[in-house]
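User: I'll paste a sequence; please echo it back and then give the predicted structure.

Assistant: Echoing your sequence first, then the prediction.
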Amino acid sequence: MKNMKKLWALLLALAMTFSLAACGGDTTEEDTADDQTTEDTAAESDLAYVQDKGTLVVGITEFEPMDYQDADGNWIGFDADLASEFAESLGVSVEFQVIDWDNKVMELDGKTIDVVWNGMTLTEDVLAAMECSQPYLINQQVVVVPADVADQYQTEDSLADLAFAVEIGSAGCEVAAANGYNYTEVADQATALLEVASGTADAAIIDSLMAGAMIGEGTSYADLTSTVALTSEEYGVGFRKGSDLAAALSEFLDGKYADGSIQTLAETYGVQDALVAE
C-alpha cells in the first residue's frame, strides 16, 4: 500500500511539472514572437524608428566648412545646416554627435547615431557598409605644407620623403597607405593641420574643401598652403544598410535642387563650385 501511495505521489508530481513547463513554454514562445515582431518592425523602417524617438542623431567630426561650431557653440556648416533642415522635414529634432571617424559604421549599426553626414567620401568600403545618398559635392585629397617650402612639393614624386599627418579612417589615410607614405594617424583633419603648423609633421593630406576654408590668407593657418591633388572623389551621406532614410533624403535633396536653396546654401559656405549638378 505504501508503495502504491508513493507511486501516485510520483505520478502527480510529474504531471504538475509537465503542466508548469508547458505553461511556461507557451508564454516564452509568445513573448519571443512579440519581441521579434518589434525588432522586425524597427528593421523594416528606419524612418519610423527615427520619427518614433523624435530625434535624428548625426555623426560628425569638426570639419569646416561642413560641420563646425559658431561662437555660441552651435553646429553650423554646409552639412550641418542641411542635416538640420532634413530633420525638420521629418518632423524631428536634430542632434549632432562627434564620433571617432574610424568607428562610423559601428556607431551606425549600434544605433548610437542615425546618419553619417560629414563630408564623407563615397569609397568602396563606405558603399558596401552603408546605405548612401547620391553624391552632392566633388572633393579632392590635397597635400598641405608650410607655404615657405611649397615650391619643393609640386609633384607626387617630390612627396616620397615627407612625414604626413592624416585623419584615422579617412580618405586621406587611405591615399597615404596606398602610396606607401610615412604617416601618422590623428583624431581628425583639424588635428592633422595643427601637426603641420606646429612642425610635428611635414605635411597633411586633407579634403580640398576643408583646405579652402581653413588654410591660407585670412585663416588661422595663413602660413600653410595646398600643393598636389592626389585624388578626385565625391561626398555622400550614409545611413544603416537597407535604411529607408536614404530614399527620404533623396526626395529632400531633389526639393532643395528644384527650389535653388541648395545653391544658396553652398554659396553661404563657399562650396558652390564643388556642388554636384542634379
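The first strand starts at residue 55 and ends at 60. The first helix runs from residue 2 to 44.
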